[in-house]
Each structure stands twice: as structure tokens, then as C-alpha cells.
Amino acid sequence: MDKIYIRDLMVRCIVGINDDERVNKQDVLFNIVLYVNLVKAGCSDNFVDTVDYRSIKKEIVKMAEESSFFLIEALAEKAAKLCLARSGVTKVIVTLDKPGALRFARSVAVEIERE
What we know:
- Helices cover 29% and strands 38% of the residues.
- By secondary structure, the chain is α+β, with helices and mostly antiparallel strands.
- The chain has a single domain (2-114), classed as 2-Layer Sandwich (GTP Cyclohydrolase I, domain 2), CATH 3.30.1130.10.
- The longest helix has 14 residues, at 53-66.
- The chain contains 3 helices and 5 strands, in the order ββααβαββ.
- α2 (53-66) packs antiparallel against α3.
- A hairpin with a 7-residue loop joins β4 (91-99) and β5.
- A 5-stranded mixed sheet has the order 3-1-2-4-5.
């Protein structure tokens, strides 16, 4: 299956269980793999034959910025559902990093795969 990658999408949102995390937005980093069939788009060179990854990006940013999840797992799940709601997307892998979540670690991340 063909893939479209959205890499290193940084979004500021409320996510976490600590008091300060419930008030102050923090950076999270999305990496998304959209599984799609790109044969028609590759042959036609026509925008209508592919998945509009720009609009998916905008939808994920809007959702995350307006959200208030306790867990990055829940934020990743919501992002995956938004992707799968798009025509042509048959599978998605969402990796979500929370930089600085643990002392001495660059980030903590979850990865989910949904069809």
C-alpha cells in the first residue's frame, strides 16, 4: 500500500494530568502515516485523485489546539479517527511525542495503528 507521511507536526495543546499541564499549553509532536492508494493520482497528476493532506493537517491542528486531553494516548486516538474519516485513507499510524515529559528523556511517545 502507498503512504503519505506528515512528519514533525508541532502543535501546542493542553495535555497531561498535572495541575500545570491542565493550564499551560505544551508542545506535542505528531508523525502520521496515511495508507492510501496513489496509483490514480500518480497517473493523472490531478489533485482530486489524491488525499488532501493539507486539510488533514489543518483538522488535526485545530482539534489538538482546542482539546484538553489527560493522555497522549487519547489525543493520538482522536487524530487517527480524523484521518480514517477521510475518503481514501484505509489505515493510519499516529506517533505522538510529548517532549520533556520525563526528566533525562528527550520525549515520551505513543504509537497507534488503526484501520
